[in-house]
Hints:
heterodimer, A: alpha/beta, Glutaredoxin, Rossmann fold, Ubiquitin-like (UB roll), 5 domains, five-stranded mixed β-sheet, four-stranded mixed β-sheet, 17 strands, about 40% helix, globular, B: alpha+beta, 2 domains, 4 strands, about 10% strand
Amino acid sequence: xxxxxxxxxxMGPAGIAAGGKAVLDEFNKTLSDKNMPADISSRxxxxxxxxxxxxxxxxxxxxxxxxxxxxxxxxxxxxVKQIVDDHIVAGAPVKQWLADExxxxxxxxxxxxxxxxxxxxxxxDIEAYISRGGYSSSKKIITSxxxxxxxxxxxxxxxxxxxxxxxxxxxxxxxxxxxxxxIKYIICNADEGDPGAFMDRAIIEGNPHLIIEGMIxxxxxxxxxxxxxxxxxxxxxxxxxxxxxxxxxxxxxxLGSNIFGADMSFDIxxxxxxxAFVCGEETALIASIEGQRGMPRAKPPFPVHxxxxxxxxxxxxxxxxxxxxxINRKGADWFSMLGTEESKGTKVxxxxxxxxxxxLIEVPMGITLREIIYDIGGGLEPGKHLKAxxxxxxxxxxxxxxxxxxxxxxxSLAKAGCIVGSGGMIVLANDDCMVNxxxxxxxxxxxxxxxxCVPCRIGTKRMLEILDRITKGLxxxxxxxxxxxxxxxxxxxxxxxxxxxxxxxxxxTLKYFRDEYExxxxxxxxxxxxxxxxxxxxxxESSCKGCQACAKACPSGAITGDKKKPHFIDQKLCIKCGACxxxxxxxxxxxF
Amino acid sequence: xxxxxxxxxxxYRSENGSVVSILQDTQSQLGYIPQEAITYFASELNxxxxxxxxxxxxxxxxxxxxxxxxxxxxxxxxxxxxxxxxKVVNAVSRRLRLSDNDHTTSDGEFTLEKVACLGFCSIAPxxxxxxxxxxxxxxxxVVKKIDSIARKDDER
Lengths: 592, 156
C-alpha cells in the first residue's frame, strides 16, 4: 500500500457540539505516537472539515485510503485507537461503527454543487480550496472575460436568488452594471434570519473561500471595488473562518489592489448583524450597515440604483454567491440542466424537526417532498407520523402530509401557499399542534416587526392576541374569519417583505388544518396535546412512586400526597403550567 | 471603564456609520452597554444620545443592564421550539427562580437569554452555557451543569 491516507473529522456546528475537536486531537495524538509505523504516519493527512451533512450521526469521520472512502458515525475519542489500528494500519475497517449504508441512502438523491467541497476540504486552508479548482474561474474571468459576457453567462444559467424571493441573479447584476455611478457595492447577505435554518452558516464555516470568490466575480460583473459580508454575530465560528479566509486571500493577491495582476481592485469587509430579522430585507440591511436602526424604506428606488451610502448596490444571498464559481467552472449549460424549467440548479435545505436524519442537504430543484422526507431523511422519528412540512420559516407556510408529492421548486411551492424560502425545512409530526406553530411564528414576526408601518406593527399584534386566546382556550366564534381578514389586509398593506409575508404561517395552516383551529375554539381541545391550557393533568396512581418531584415543581400547590404514596392533583388549584408533566421521571403524569 | 471606551472610540472614529460597531465592541468588552458609554460616545462623536439609544434598543443583541457572571443562552428557533426547548427554559427558570421579566438572578450569578436561532438546528433543542453547546439538550443535563457551576461559585 502506498499513497496518501485522508482522515477528515466533521467540525460543522453539530460536529463541534458532539465533540469533534476531542476526536481530532485524539487522531493527532495517536498518529504521532512513536510506536506508529513511520510509513503510515507520514502518509496520513488528518484535518477538520466543515459540515458533512448527516448531523444526527455526528461526530462523522471519513477515512480514505487509495480512493476508497469509509465513514464512521458517532465517533468518540476512545474509538480512535481502534480505527487507527484496525483500519489505517491493518487495512480492515471497523465494521460496527461504519455509517456507510444509511449514509449512502442519505446521499443517493442529493446533488451537491454548493456543498460539493463542504465537508471535504479544510476550511481554514486556502490551498485546500485552490487544489479543488478554487479561484481558477475568478482568475480566468478577470483576466480574459468582459463583464457583459460574464453577466450573459449567469443569465443563461438561470440562477435565481436563494434568499427566498428568487429574483434572477444575472438580471440583478445587469441592472447594477448599467446603473450610473463610479462607486458601487456588492453585499453578501449572510444574516440568515430564518430561525430554523443554518445553510449559510454551514457554507461559510465549511468553505469560506467559495463566498469570497463568488463576491469577486460579482464585483467584476457590476464594476465594484468594495464588498461587505453582513453576517450574524451569533455565528462566531463562521465569522472567524471568514476573517481568516479574507486574510489568506489578500496575502495571495486575490483581494486588494490589482487582483490577479489585473487592473481591478476589490476588498471585503465583514459587518456583524446585531440580531434583527428585518435586516434580511435589502433596504433594512443597508440601513444597518450604515449604523442605523434596521428599518426598511419604500422601493423604488431599488438598491441596484440607490443603495449603500446612496450608491448602486447589489445584495446577494450567501448561497447564491456560492453557486457562481461553480457555474463559471462548469458552464451555464451544465447548471441549467439541473432543476426544472423555471427553477434551475439545486437548493440547500436544513432538514430538521421530527426526522430521523436531520442535517444539511442539497437537492436538485424539482425533487419531490416525499423523496426528501423518506429517502434522504429516512422517514420520521420512531413512533411518529408525518403531519406537515414547514418551509420558508416565518415568511413561509406548512405543506400537509397529503401533498407529499409536490415538486420542490419556486413555482410549485408558491402555488401551495408556501415558499422555498432561504432553506429551512422543518418536519412536523402528529404531536405538533398547528395552531401553536402558527402562534410561534407570529410571535416571532410580531416582535421582529420594526414598527415603521401600521399594518405590520399593529396588525400582527392583533393577530397574535387572537392566536394567544385560541391556544389558551378563550377562542370565540368568528376568530378564524378575523384572522383571515386581518392576514389578507396585512399582506396587502405592509411596506416590506416582513409584513407582507408575516400572515403566511397562519393563513397556510388555516387553509390545510382548519379543523385544528376549530377544535381549539369550539371544543376547547388541543388534538396534538400541546396547548397546556386546553389539557387536563392528572396522576396515574398505579405508576406514581410518590417521589414528590411534581409536588415540589408545582408553583400553585395543587399537588398533594405523602412520600412514597401516589400523589393527587387538585384540578381547582391547577394552573395547567405542565411543570409536573415535565419533571415526572416515571411518566406518571398524563395530559389529555 | 474610560480607557476601554477610549480605545473603542479610536478604532471606529474615522469610520462611516459606526454606531452599531461601536456598541458591539463596547458590549463585547464590558458585557453590556452602560449609560455612561452612550453619553461618552455621543459627546465625542457629536451624534445625539437618542440615536445611540435608538440603535441599542432596536437590535436584540444589545443589553442595557449588567448581565450575570454565567450566561445561559437558550435557542428559540423553530427546530428547537418543536423539539421542546420550552421545557428546558422552564426548568432553568425554576432552578434559578427567574420570572418572565427577570432574566438575571438576584445574586448576579446567572443570566438566562433567549435568542432567535443559534444555527444548531440539526441537534435541537440547543442550550449554551457559557458558550459550551448542549445539543439535544436534556433538562437533567442542563440543570446538573448549572448546579455544578453554582457549587463552584459557592466554594470560592
